[in-house]
Amino acid sequence: MPAVSEHRAPPPVTRHDWSRPEIEALFALPFTELLHRAGSVHRNHFDPAEVQVSTLLSVKTGGCPEDCAYCPQAQRYHTGVEAQKLMSTGAVLEKAKQAKAAGASRFCMGAAWRSPKDRDIPKVAAMIREVKALGLETCATLGMLSDSQAQALKSAGLDYYNHNLDTAPDFYGEIIHTREFQDRLDTLAHVRDAGMKTCCGGIVGMGESRAQRAGLLQTLANLPAHPDSVPINRLVQVEGTPLAGTAELDPFEFVRTIAVARIVMPRSMVRLSAGRESMSDELQALCFAAGANSIFYGEKLLTTGNPDTERDLALFARLGLRPMAVVEEASTVHADIVAPAQSCAA
Ligand code: SF4
């Protein structure tokens, strides 16, 4: 059988001028046609048998003053998440060493802050420097950043910064009231200006319309640079948050969202993030067929035993997929522990 690469069409030009009707038209394609188009785009830019494996260490959990309606880490909701202080650099370093021993090449640190205070930056910078010195790539998600904070993190050696748009501009006000959509865009601009790579996506299934899902993808695809990684989260409904009890999104609609993300951001890593634990193997397989090529591992990667990871590897084996493990642009394994359900970084 000829190699897949022999059938590759010329890669489409990466666009930043998508209109919402164009993206809605992609959503409206027959399911089989949409998957075919997304799969073709996927093959033009990636080996479709490879999946990037990512995880996240929560270096400061809970107690967040923001009101993101989906988030169990917001202190105003009673979700049972206990607020913890920022971990010590030594404790983070220990986790990073474990991550490296587990085969990680990138280490991602997340803190449940609205934004770091300037006095927090030297502490996080120390973590970044120490983790970097281990030979790991570094990634962080700390909330909104000022220009000078982004520059300081870059100087400390930070490679990637995660900051999600969460949802479409016209649905944002239904989900978050403690900051503006423009604040998100400003932080992303500071990150880009500082020379770091961006990880930016959103959450679907929060009660938004299809047009609003299209609006999220339109905004992401029309950023000055496509995010290097695009996490697409499926809402995890957490008791105590305002979105508990939201009508569940049709799983096929989730797959459509993945496929459209792949088409409009052809060179980005499209990541299955929060909500994956509750997906069937068959639904995950459909997402891979639709162009998803990155996942978050289960939260026990750095602890003894990891049945979640074993289940993932078994699924990879059944599907003939393999983890990306090459230190190369957007093809790394990061090893971390995931904060409960979705949060800033999910
Ligand atoms: S998503 Fe992030 S900013 Fe929003 S409440 Fe959760 S931790 Fe805070």
Describe the structure.
It catalyses: (4R,5S)-dethiobiotin + (sulfur carrier)-SH + 2 reduced [2Fe-2S]-[ferredoxin] + 2 S-adenosyl-L-methionine = (sulfur carrier)-H + biotin + 2 5'-deoxyadenosine + 2 L-methionine + 2 oxidized [2Fe-2S]-[ferredoxin]. This protein is of the alpha/beta class. It has a single domain, classed as Alpha-Beta Barrel (TIM Barrel). It is built from eleven helices and eleven strands. The relative contact order is 0.20. It binds iron/sulfur cluster.
CATH topology assignment: TIM Barrel
Strand order of the largest sheet: 7-8-9-10-1-11
User: Hetero groups bound?
Assistant: iron/sulfur cluster
Beta strand count: 11
Gross morphology: globular
Given the helix and strand composition, which structural class is it? alpha/beta
CATH architecture: Alpha-Beta Barrel
Count the domains. Answer: 1
CATH class: Alpha Beta
Low-confidence stretches: 1-6, 299-306, 326-340
Function: Catalyzes the conversion of dethiobiotin (DTB) to biotin by the insertion of a sulfur atom into dethiobiotin via a radical-based mechanism.
Pathway: Cofactor biosynthesis; biotin biosynthesis; biotin from 7,8-diaminononanoate: step 2/2
Family: Belongs to the radical SAM superfamily. Biotin synthase family.
Domain Radical SAM core: 49-273
